Amino acid sequence: MVALRDGSKAQGELEDDSDLITADPTETTHLLATGVEENDNIVTAGGVKGTNGGWDGLADFEGLPWWRRPSVFWLLAPYSVFTLAFGSVIVPKLNLILGLVCQHYFASQSHLHPDLRVNPINIGADNPQCRNPEVQKRVATFMLVMNFCTGLLSAYAAPRLGHLSDRYGRRRLLALASCGGLLGEIITILAAKFPETVDYRWLILGSIFDGMTGSFTAGNILTQSYASDCTPPSRRAVAIGYIHACLFTGLAVGQLLGGEIVRLTGSLVSIFYVCLAAHSFFIVFVAFVIPDSLSKKKQLAAREKHRKEEGERRARRTSWFSSVQERNPFSSLSVLWPRGRGTSARLRLNLVALATCDMIIMGTAMAAGQVIILYAEYVFGWQTPETSRFVAAASFFRVIVLMGIFPLINYFFRIRPAAKRRRESGITPVDKNSGADHLDIWILRIALLSDILGYIGYTFARAPVPFVASALMTAFGGLGSATSQSVVTKHIPHDKVGRVLGAIGMLQALVRVIGPVAFNGLYAATVGSYPQAIFVALAGLFSFALLCSFIITPFVHWHEDHEEEEEREPLNGTAPQAVGPAGTGFPCDEDEIRY
Hints:
This protein has 595 residues and is mainly alpha-helical. The chain has 19 helices and two strands. A hairpin with a 2-residue loop joins strand 1 (36-39) and strand 2 (42-45). The protein starts with 35 loop residues before the first strand and ends in a 28-residue tail after the last helix. Pfam families: MFS_1.
C-alpha cells in the first residue's frame, strides 16, 4: 500500500466543499491519489496538515496540557541528577572500601600478633599503612566481587525491565531502576557510620540490590526508550545525544562535586547522604511527576499482543527442553536476530552490527577509562588535580559535540533538506521508522574513525599536549553511541523498543563485567614492557566496529504490519502513486511514500 502525506492537492484541485470526500476512516480505508492525506486515523482531502507533521507517535496525547505530554526534556534534569549521583561516589566509595578493608585487616592482624602496633585508621583520610600489598590485593578482589554481582544481575534484569516497559510504561520501571541504588547507598552509609556493627562485606548486598533492579544499565536503556517514544525518527539521534550529554556531564561534574563536598565537610560519608538524596529525588520525580511516554492505549495493545504471542509459544512447546530454552538467561538476545513476518536477513545483520558497535563504544567507555587514567598518571606523573582536569575537559568537550555540533549536523543535513523537498513537492513525508538513512551510517562511521585516530594518538603521544588532543579527538566518538542506539529504534516497531534496547543493555552489562578484567589484565601484563599495548588493542576493537558499520544496509526495518497492508490493496491490483511536483508520477523521495 502506498500512502501520501500531502500538504497540497494532488492531481487536480477540489473546487469547493462539495468535492470534499469524507468518511468514517478505519484501518482498511483506501487512500486515493486525489489529494487525500492520511494522518493516523484521520483521512482528509484538501491538504489540511496533521498536527504532528507526518509523525503520529504522540497522537494519543494531542489536546492534553503540556504537563501531561511526554517530551525528552522532561528527563534531562532528573537524569542529570541520576548521573551526578552515580559519578560523585565512584572515587569516595573506592576510598571508603579501602579504609574499611584496611581497618578490618589490621584488626585481624592485631588479634594474631598482639605486639603489632598500627596507627589508627581514619576513614577517608590519607592512611600510609593502607598501602600494604595485602590490603591492596583484598580491596581489588572485593571490588571485583561487587562489580561482578552488579554486572551479572543487571545483565539479567535490564532486558526484562526493558521488555516489561513496552507493556507497562517507562517511568515507574525507570524509578524502580534507581531503587536498588538507593538501598545500596543506605547500606554504604550504615557500613561507614557503624563499621564495628555492620561489616564491610554487607556492601556486597548493596551491589546485589543494585543489580537486581538493573543498576545504571537499566536506567540508561529505559531513558533512551522514553526518548525514542516521544521523538520523531528524524530527530531521535539528537534526543538520545542529549541523554548521552547528560550522562557525560553527570560523570564529569559528579567526580569534581564529590571531591569538593568531601573537602568542604571533612567527612567522606557526607557525599553518600547527597547521593541518597539524589536517588530519592529521581525516584519521586520520575514516578509521580513526568508523564509516561506510552499511552494507556499502547500499553494495553502491547499487553494483548504479548498474551497472544505467549499463547502461540505455549502451543508450540513439545517438550521440557523447549521450555528450558525459553528460560535461558541469554534468550533476551534473540530479539536481535528476529524471524518471522516482516523480518529479513538484512534486518538481522543490521541489528547485530549495530549492537556490536554499541557494545564496543559503550563497553570501552565504561571499562577502559580507568586504565587510561592509570596510564596518564604513570607516564606523565599526573596527580589527582591534573587527572580531574583531564577527565573534566574530555567529558565537557564530548558534551559540546553532543549538544552543540550534533544538532547542527542533523539540522543542516537532514531537517533542512527534508523541508526543502516538502516545499518543492507539496508532499509531507511520512516521518516513520524506516531504518538507518545514509546520514546515520556516515555519522556512525566518522565517529568510529575518530575513536580509532584518538587511540592511535594515545599510542604515539609522549607528552601531555598530544595526549589531551587525542582525548578530544575521541570525544567525537560520542556521536557513535547516540547514533547507533537511535538507529536501532528506527529498525523496529514501537512496541519492541524497550525489549531491543534491553538486549543491548544486557550486552553493555556483560562488557561491564568482562571489560575491566580484560583491560586491566592486559595493562598489568604489558605496563613493564610496552604500556601503550592497551591503546593498540582498543584501536583494533574500534577498527572491527568500523568494519561492522559497513555491513549496515540503509532503509531496512521490521515491517510488522506487512501482511495487513497487503490485504488492504485495491481489488483491481493498482495502487495510488505519489506525484512529483511536475506531475510526473514519480515519487519525490524515498521517505515520501509508505510501503
